[in-house]
Amino acid sequence: MGSRTGLHLDYLSLAEFEAARWAGVMGVATFDGSRDGLRETGAPVVEINTPVLGDAPALCEVWRTPQAVESGQRGRVRYARTADMLFGCIAIPENDNTRTPAEGDRSPLQDATEQAYREILGTLDALGFPHLIRVWNYVSEINLDTHGTERYRQFNSGRQTALLAAGRAITGNVSAACALGAAAGSPLVIYFLASHTAPTFVENPRQVSAYNYPPQYGRRTPVFSRAAVLHEPGSMTLFISGTASIVGHQTIHAGDTAAQTRETITNIEALLDEANRVTKSEEFTLDALACKVYVRHAADLPVIQAELRTALGPSSRAVYLQAEICRRDLLVEIEATAMVPATAGM
């Protein structure tokens, strides 16, 4: 997938990745909680404890580029960078933090999240990549209630606190992102892409922007855009954030997996239309997408696969992971990426 001049994304088995032996790898994510059998790439490797569903073997997500890549580490952030872009990752166990008595009402997850984002933002500032484009967050037991509130809301609080402390926006021009559950006992794992140049941020006209959600979804709102477009010479990459069956700010089709999947696809189509509008392009289409699909209940996989095949066609590119989703009443969430030629309009 991808243009020959810009960023590439591939979903592969570990064996396929080993056989490819590409140069220019910026980062690799594995999704079975283990990197066993993965050779040393020199690039950051992210280990995420979310089972792969279906017939797919052990899966890895590979980000690569035709440009020269330099790897390094700053604090707990491992990164690889080109002249224009940076891929980074960090993993922080929730017991790997210290709190002062004044912070005694804060949860370990909130502390870990704030620390992670402070280190991420500090790395971007130090290395000169000011624009956070896309962030993936994996939170152990994301729907569990502890310390008086749901863990997803604890995560949102820690993220927003760190962004404000760094002088970063928490509305408007904020990165595309997702936050999914990981197995109990997993560390907080975050990986991200950043750039020298600002992307174009995209909102969904069918939905309230997440950073404008009403207080019923938590004292601190989620901080992400619905999508972002990265512009590179000769190519554009659309990053669609985790998208679900939400219209306005409300979940719809509660309990109906098929209907939630169809509504999610409708939201993705709305984002494609909006991305084409703001980039003056017609390049972003359903068949250009590579999708990562999060399934709450493994038994729902055949229903979700059937809906996606109907919408995207039999040759659709999708991988399926089992994970809790940020709202308990959501049964499926889809993120997507499209890499297309740049248009003359931009």
List strands and helices in order, with pairings:
Layout: E1 8-13, H1 14-20, E2 25-30, E3 45-47, E4 59-64, E5 70-74, E6 77-81, E7 85-92, H2 108-127, E8 131-140, E9 145-146, E10 149-150, H3 151-165, E11 176-182, E12 188-195, E13 200-202, E14 227-232, E15 235-243, E16 246-247, E17 250-251, H4 257-279, E18 290-295, H5 301-312, E19 317-322, E20 332-341
Parallel strand pairs: 2-3, 8-11, 18-19
Antiparallel strand pairs: 1-4, 2-4, 5-6, 6-7, 7-12, 8-12, 9-10, 13-14, 14-15, 15-20, 16-17, 18-20
Helix pairs in contact: 2-3, 4-5
Which fold name fills CATH's third level, the topology?
Answer: 60s Ribosomal Protein L30, Chain: A
Strand ordering within the main sheet: 5-6-7-12-8-11
Gross morphology is: globular
Q: Tell me the β content.
A: 25-35%
Mean pLDDT: 92
The number of distinct helices, counting runs of at least 4 residues, comes to 5
Looking at CATH, the homologous superfamily is RutC-like
* Biggest sheet record: 6 strands, mixed
Class from helix and strand fractions: alpha+beta
Using the 3D structure, state the CATH architecture: 2-Layer Sandwich
- Give the N-to-C terminal Cα separation: 22 Å
How many domains would you count in the coordinates?
A: 1
Instruction: Report the radius of gyration as a whole number of Å.
Output: 19 Å
Order of helices and strands: EHEEEEEEHEEEHEEEEEEEHEHEE
CATH hierarchy class name: Alpha Beta
Determine the fraction of residues in helical runs and give it as a percent range. 10-25%
Number of strands: 20
Low-confidence stretches: none
